[in-house]
Amino acid sequence: MSPRRNRPRGGDRTARRAGEAEDRHGLERTEEWRGEEWVVRQIAGQSAAKHYRCPGCDQEIPPGVPHVVAWQRDGRVEDRRHWHRACWNARDRRSARLQRSRGAPRY
């Protein structure tokens, strides 16, 4: 039996799609939604260290769960929102069914 190959066979897999960039937080891309540009960053499970509240389903995203962070291109840092990946992909079909009061915590 020959030894296992430890290198990839499929050529160069490091090429990124157009509009994507790699930084220390993860893979970042720009998407168009509701006529505005949004910056979307994929967060790996080991990088997710806090609890967040998904605006798509109004459920909690616990630490260690991979998810998406999205914000408007010209928005403020406080406007970033953490979404489940499925909720972000279905954002046109989903909205929070439960409306929280102004005094409710915003994870």
Question: What is the fold's blueprint, element by element?
Answer:
Elements: E1 20-23, E2 26-33, E3 36-43, E4 52-53, E5 60-61, E6 67-72, E7 81-83, H1 85-89
In whole angstroms, the N-to-C terminal distance is: 54 Å
**Biggest sheet, open or closed, and with what strands and sense?**
5 strands, antiparallel
String of helices and strands: EEEEEEEH
Give start-end ranges of low-pLDDT stretches.
Answer: none
Biased composition (Basic and acidic residues): 9-29
Protein name: ATP/GTP-binding protein
Organism: Streptomyces macrosporus
Region (Disordered): 1-29
What labels would you give this structure?
single chain, 107 residues, mainly beta, 5-stranded antiparallel β-sheet, two-stranded antiparallel ribbon, extended
What does this structure look like?
The longest helix has 5 residues, at 85-89. The mean pLDDT is 78. The chain has a domain at 23-89. The chain starts with 19 loop residues before the first strand and ends in an 18-residue tail after the last helix. The radius of gyration is 17 Å and the shape is extended. The chain has a five-stranded antiparallel beta sheet with strand order 1-2-3-6-7. A two-stranded antiparallel ribbon has the order 4-5. By secondary structure, the protein is mainly beta. It has one helix at 85-89; strands spanning 20-23, 26-33, 36-43, 52-53, 60-61, 67-72, 81-83. Residues 9-29 have a biased composition (Basic and acidic residues). It comes from Streptomyces macrosporus. This is ATP/GTP-binding protein. Residues 1-29 are annotated as: Disordered.
